[in-house]
Structure formats: C-alpha cells, structure tokens
Amino acid sequence: MGRFNLVIAVLSLSLSVCFFPDSASAQLRQKYYANICPNVEDIVRNVVNQKFKQTFVTVPATLRMFFHDCFVQGCDASVLVASTRGNTAEKDHPDNLSLAGDGFDTVIKAKAAVDANPRCRNKVSCADILAMATRDVVSLAGGPSYAVELGRLDGLRSTAASVNGNLPKPSFNLNQLNAMFASKGLSQTDMIALSAAHTLGFSHCDKFANRIYNFNRQNPVDPTLNRQYATQLQGMCPRNVDPRIAIDMDPKTPRAFDNAYFQNLQQGKGLFTSDQVLWTDRRSRPTVDTWARNPEAFKSAFIQAMTKLGRVGVKTGRNGNIRFDCGRFNG
C-alpha cells in the first residue's frame, strides 16, 4: 500500500512540474501594466485598428500567429524572432512559412507605438503585445472582447527544431488532437473552441488536396465531405494547381468571427480532416451541435480557452526578458 501511495505521489509531482513550471502563469493578471504603462491597451488597440482598416488579413494572421507561438515554446513571442546565420528560427520552419506577414507587422508596429511613449519604453513584452493584439483582432471581426491576462516575458531562444511535433496537422483525428492539446494543459472543450479560429482566414490547396482527389482507393473524395462543397473545392483547386493558392477556411462567413464554423461542420463543410472530425466523432459532436445553435455559449467557451492558451509556457525571471526589438534577441 505504501509503495502505491509513493507512485501516486511521484505521478502527482510529475504532473505539477509538467503543467505548472515555476508556477509561471501565476504572475499573469489583468491590468498588469496599470502602474507601468497605463495606456498600453489603448495604444495597441489603436495600432490594430489602423492595420485592420488597411487589410482584413490582419485578423486571421495575428490570431494564427498567437496560436503557433504559444503551442511551440509557450506564449513568449519566439515565433517573431528572425533567423540568423547561426540559427534557423521558428518562423522559418515549414509549418510557419504560411503565417501571413500582416500578423508580424501588427506586433512590430504596436511595439514601436508602445515604446514611443517614454513611460512605456522597453517595459512591455512582445509576448504581451501579441496577446493584446490577438484579443483586439477577434473583437474587430465580430468576436468577443475579453480581459487579457498580462505579465509575460519574451523567450530567449527560437529554433526551427522546436516546432517539430508541436503543431496540429490538418490530417489529425480526435485522439491526436486531444493528446496534443492535453500536452498543453487544454481540454477537448478548449480544443474545439480554439479550432473555431478556422472561421477566419484561409488555407492553401496542398493542405486539403488529399480529401478531394486521392482520399483512398475506394473513395477518391473524402466521404465525410459535402459533395457540392467538394466540387466547389475542386473548381478552386484543380489537380496540379499552384499549391499556394488560398481558399477561405469558412465558405459561409469568412470575414466574421462567429459560430458558422460549427454549422459548416454539421453540413460536411469542414475544410480539414481535423475540422470535420469534430462532428463525425461522436465524442465531440454534442459540443459542436450545442455551439452551432448557441453562439453565446461558444463565445464564453472561446474566452476561457484563449485565457488558458495564453498561460501556456509563460516565461518568468531569468527565463525571459523584454525585447527591445521583437524580431531579434537583445544584444
């Protein structure tokens, strides 16, 4: 009996170390900069508004960049760092090459605006600016606005190798999705809510071509894909087309952050396997059905999931700093 208790104790300790390293997320709080840079949220929001007026791509680009940043080494803005002669950084990993430049530009311009205020100069991390900008683009697209927890430091390393195995693939099934999100401390409900970010933005033809041309020997087209939708996709992405051609992720309301994503799944119009499986798998279908008819319940779950995502791998103390330039480490 004593040995059993020891095993349980060791397991509990291991889980604590895994999910709460140095209790880093405990330093996050709303209004973190109230006495440091009191107008920081207004400064960032103004920049985001200007970028949004220039191009809608700012919205999905910033949201996707936040997700890619947090999932690789934690929410530490390491995805913003440029490669150098001696190091290939995260942003140049093949899985990140499709991140739109407008996301990077939004954070860089917001950082410049924050640092233009003498009281704020070099006191606000790029990681926090990215978190605020992500909240703002979601709101501008019609999604919920929410209070952002702040207090992150910027990471001290960024390597392409660290991306390997840390981002979900379009081909993932529910077990694979749940396992990857659980490794970040996120539940199946969180995963489904965050997947709805695919209500915005675009994908390239090569990411789903297998579903419309060579799914398997018996079914060239994925049978879970709506037939009419599959024909439309074939028209937009003919065989041997340039794989970089972009297709809206949401065929219904591609410029609105809404619950149409879940309604699309009910109709077989999830672009990726990893989207459609949320409805075809009986374990996740009830959540999809609930949020398809109840947008407020979805928005509430999305806020909770984004808050939890923003706590992943937060850097504190000597594990981070505040970068002077979001694109490179301090000298």
From TrEMBL:
Annotated heme b binding lies at H198
Relay the cofactor remark from the entry: Binds 1 heme b (iron(II)-protoporphyrin IX) group per subunit.
UniProt site positions, description: Transition state stabilizer: R64
Kindly list the positions annotated as binding Ca(2+) 2. T199, D250, T253, D258
Q: What is its EC number?
A: 1.11.1.7
Which residues are in the Plant heme peroxidase family profile domain?
A: 27-330
Keyword Aminoacyl-tRNA synthetase listed: no
Give the main EC class: oxidoreductase
The protein's name in its UniProt record: Peroxidase
**GO (cellular component) term, any one:** extracellular region
PROSITE patterns per the record? Answer: PEROXIDASE_1, PEROXIDASE_2, PEROXIDASE_4
Which family is this sequence assigned to? Belongs to the peroxidase family. Classical plant (class III) peroxidase subfamily. Belongs to the peroxidase family. Ascorbate peroxidase subfamily.
